[in-house]
Amino acid sequence: MDNEKTIENEIREYRAQFEKSMASIGAYQEKAQIEIAEIRALSQEDREKLKEIRELQKQTDEGLKELKERQKQTDEQMRKTDEQIRKTGKQLSELNSNWGRFVESLVEGSLVELLSERGIDITGTLPNVKTHYDDDDGRRHNKEFDIIVRNGEDVVVVEVKTTLRPDDVTRFIGSMKMFTRFLPEYRTKRVYGAVAYIRSLSHAELYAEKQRLFVIRATGDSASIVNDEGFEPVSFTKVSTGPTRGHLRAVPAG
To answer: Please, where are the H alpha helices in the chain?
Structure first.
């Protein structure tokens, strides 16, 4: 009897342990099924996200392709624009150069007659005089004077401008103050300044006359001195004898 009870007890324990194990297995299975479902759901979400990412990447690639094409077109347009700017700049430069030469030739051709009317007998005309001087520090200063006319002891330096501005007058006066540094052979001459122009801005011609420069205006195919008869120009050298009432001392040709 005791042995039978012992066996029954052991069977009962084994059965209890078995049921407990089966319950644990069931719990594990249920948990595993939940995890598998979650994994499947997560994978589906990932697939959707991946699909979105691929779509965005496709759109980005298309956008980059379109951007590169636009950039290519822009570069080509910029190249054409730069080429046109260079071409236009060259044309303007040539036009300004030709126009400047025209103005200079116009004024130069009229100077003999104009200055003769003021009692200035010209014996020589020097256009586009390029010169320089070296200062004490060894720096070279270059300068080009548009027109220089001479009549022996007197010199008139002419600055030619298509459009005359006050700043042009100021710079010219600065150059005239250094004139004998550029051309020391004229130190013993009376040196006067003149500005010639087609049009004037900000009353630059009045400013020039106030600074006692000859003022010459080119009109059409001629030019004229606009200073009044009582005008007395300033000499930029220290030679004492000067003109009387705007007339430089006449020196016979030859």
So the answer is: 2-117, 166-177, 179-182, 204-210
Encoded tokens for 126? 């020097």
138: left (phi over 0), alpha (psi -120 to 50) or beta: left
Cα Rg for the chain, rounded, in angstroms? 49
For 72-98, what is each residue's pLDDT tens digit? Answer: 887 778 777 767 767 665 655 655 565
Question: Burial, 74: exposed, middle or buried (Cβ in 10 Å; 0-12, 13-18, 19+)?
Answer: exposed
Q: How far apart are CA 81 and CA 73, in angstroms?
A: 12
For the chain, how long is the longest CA-to-CA vector? 169
**Residue 93 neighbours by CB distance under 10 Å:** 10
Q: Say which amino acid occupies 245.
A: R
**In terms of pLDDT, which residue wins out, 187 or 33?**
187
Burial degree of 216 (CB within 10 A; 0-12, 13-18, 19+): buried
Take residue 210 and report the two structure tokens written for it.
């106030």
Backbone angles phi and psi of 238, in degrees to 5: -95, 20
CA distances from 20 to 27, 34, 69 (A): 10, 21, 72
Backbone angles phi, psi at 134, to 5 degrees: -105, 130
The model's pTM is: 0.56
Asked if 135 and 171 touch (Cβ cutoff 8 Å), the reply is no
- Which tokens hold the place of 76? 């080509």
Q: Which residues pair with 191 in a beta bridge?
A: 155
pLDDT, tens only, 23-63: 666 666 666 666 666 656 655 666 677 677 777 777 887 87
Q: Please report the sign of the dihedral spanned by the C-alpha atoms of residue 103, residue 105, residue 110, residue 116.
A: positive
Here the tokens at position 78 are 């910029």
41 burial class (0-12, 13-18, 19+ CB within 10 angstroms)? exposed
